Amino acid sequence: MEATLRQLATLPAPKTTPLQDVARCLLGSFMVVAGTGHLTFVRHDFQAQVPDFVPMDKDTVVLLSGVVEIALGLALLFLKGKNRVRMGLGLAAFYVAIFPGNIHQYTERISAFNLDTDGKRLARLFGQPVLVGAALWSTGALKALRKK
């Protein structure tokens, strides 16, 4: 992975389309709002997603992940060029890292975020790969990885 990041740093940043730019701005705004929710109005719901195997206090995990989400969202909104590609890779990795929380919510049948049925919780699991793809596509990271 480290070699891939070093190789990406030497490539020219791919140009993104207006549609990618809009998607990236929407995704960045979504991340800032979600991160703010971690710190404030939906903090309890986010705590319900923290798997029991995580060796930290659930509230601490929620607060730290909220700060990370806000930082990633702002980076998506304001960074340019190669840094944008790196943020796309970072956000995709973040979405993968938090996926166990979604699985935990489904397997433990925890109602949070109005996901109060097994069907709704299962459907959410399929949304995570879409977010990973959106992060990679909207930042030009997919194109940069293909050029590598």
The share of residues in helices is: over 70%
Alpha-beta classification: mainly alpha
Categorize the overall geometry. elongated
State Rg.
16 Å
Query: Which ranges are low-confidence, i.e. pLDDT below 50, for 5 or more consecutive residues?
Result: none
Major beta-sheet overview: none
- Summed up, the helix count is 7
Distance N terminus to C terminus?
13 Å
**Beta-strand percentage?**
under 5%
For the secondary structure, the number of strands is: 0
Structure description:
- With 148 residues, the chain is mainly alpha-helical.
- It has helices at residues 2-10, 18-39, 43-49, 58-78, 81-107, 118-138, 141-147.
- Helix 2 (18-39) crosses helix 6 and helix 3 (43-49) crosses helix 4.
- The longest helix is centred in the middle third of the chain and has 27 residues, at 81-107.
- The protein starts with a helix and ends with a helix.
Name the features.
148 residues; mainly alpha
Fold blueprint:
Blueprint: H1 2-10, H2 18-39, H3 43-49, H4 58-78, H5 81-107, H6 118-138, H7 141-147
Helix pairs in contact: 2-4, 2-6, 3-4, 4-5, 5-6
In short:
This protein has 7 helices and no strands.
